[in-house]
Request: fold
Amino acid sequence: MPTREEVLEKLKNGVIQYDEDACKEGANEAIAIGLDANEAIFEGLVAGMEEVGRLFEAQEYFVPEILMCADALYAGLDILKPHCKQMDLGVKGAVVIGTVEGDVHDIGKNLVKMMFDVAGFTVYDLGRDVPLDQFVEEQLRTDSELVCLSAMMTTSMIGMPKVIEKIKARNPNVMIMIGGAPTSKELADKWGADGYAEDASNALKEAIKMVTFLKNLRAEKEAEKKV
Amino acid sequence: MNSKERVLNLFKKEPIDRIPCFSGMGNVTEEGINRLGYKFAGIHLDAKQMADTAASTSKLFGYECAVVPVDLCLEAEAMGCVINVYPHAEGILYPTIKEKLIHNEDEMEISIPVDVAKRGRIPLVKEAIGMLKADIGNDTAIGTYVLGPFTLAGQIMELNDLLKLSFKKPAKVSALLDKLADVIIATAKELESAGPDYITVREMGATSDVLSPRVFKSMILPPLQKIIKEIKVPTVLHICGKTNDIVTFMMEANPTAISVEQKNDVAETRRKLGPDALIFGNFDPYNVLVAGTEELVRDTMRKCIDNGVSAVWPGCDIWPTVPPANFNAMMDEVKKYGGKK
Reply:
């Protein structure tokens, strides 16, 4: 029987070395030795993805490698998911995500989606080239507390403020994250978005940050209860 | 010296009175479209509307070029992809590809129709170039553009698959890019026969934000060299994103000029490529020209010139909702400041 450390290492390295088979093997071993599935995901797969983010920043990895790492992560995640206990983040944990109308690029969007899958969110993926009103309708229908809008092209980004305005008008507590090459911190602020990510690696980091933020939110609520 | 002489002399590296302000990419404006009474979705499908709209930027603002087409789907459409022009969109949406040609790795061995350059809207764009020449071609440089092979590949197949295969099966991707180079050459030659003054090759997808410089050199550069060699008029190679690590490879493709966007450190690029290289760039067409103040526009123009651009170019298509006051400020500042360098 492999040890806990060996299994986590296998999962982590499986992601970093885009080795789907190693991730599958590591996931099965995790279950076999009775490792908590959430721990295997966060300490193994996500730890690997964080390292991938660093390698991307250091320009050792580029987008093709990240995509292959994501495939490896999903290979492990698919096996571990059914064994996860629902993580209580203090929020319902639902997100509406999609690429805005006029844009057919979805790589950044899919990477962010992956992080939400990892965190146990219910993900309503609208796909790409999504008419703007559909974001508003889907948020209302699902009562999701997060909406993520992605655009790769300047030419399709312009629809974003309209969606943000419509959603915030109906429910000011919805958090909105925008992403894609043409977006910026200034635009996110100006349009009233809560987060932004300009590229795939940043999207990954932002999504990790958002998940962490939600965890902290829960911790704060817990603390308030005690007071 | 009129703007056409200025632009052509620049390409020939002959004396100019000041740095020109033009582009090789789309630069139609809402102001122009509205004055003509057209709709954005319609200008892609009608040669006269396309030419009129393209000419309007030079007529209204003194922009030193006119460029057709306006969208990026020409080659993919000629190869058989269906495009969506979003006819019912309220705002401005650029056409996109509805249906890919290649759905999986096994479909990558495509055959190219011999008459590909006569298909889709290539004849329409050719006609629009002719109209532009007749309308303003004496005083204004007329440009057109084709896609780079990797960008075109990303349109006819899933970008996700293309990127992964560029790593896993580079020979297969190279074979596809070589075929696409033939499509692009055929398109460029057809458009060239209408008499444009320069052709831009837009290889937006192959930026080093996405692909490593190593992959750029081994996989993207050879088909780019093949394409640019076949074009007789001056060429500009445009690549978006962080391009500092690949500007020397861009020069190896042997275009007349290179164009880079705002993420490129142009001062560094100038140092790297020397005083004679034609480097066009590199302001942010949305955050500066559309969303910025007139003051930001003027500051940015001066900064581009100070950093050593040979011509002030936007980093991408000019977004049509550009405020006329900002457009005028851009032209005014380049005219005032561009002669001092």
Observations:
- The longest strand of chain A covers residues 94-99.
- The beta strands of chain A are 94-99, 122-125, 146-150, 175-179, 195-197.
- Chain A has ten helices and five strands.
- The longest helix of chain A spans residues 200-226.
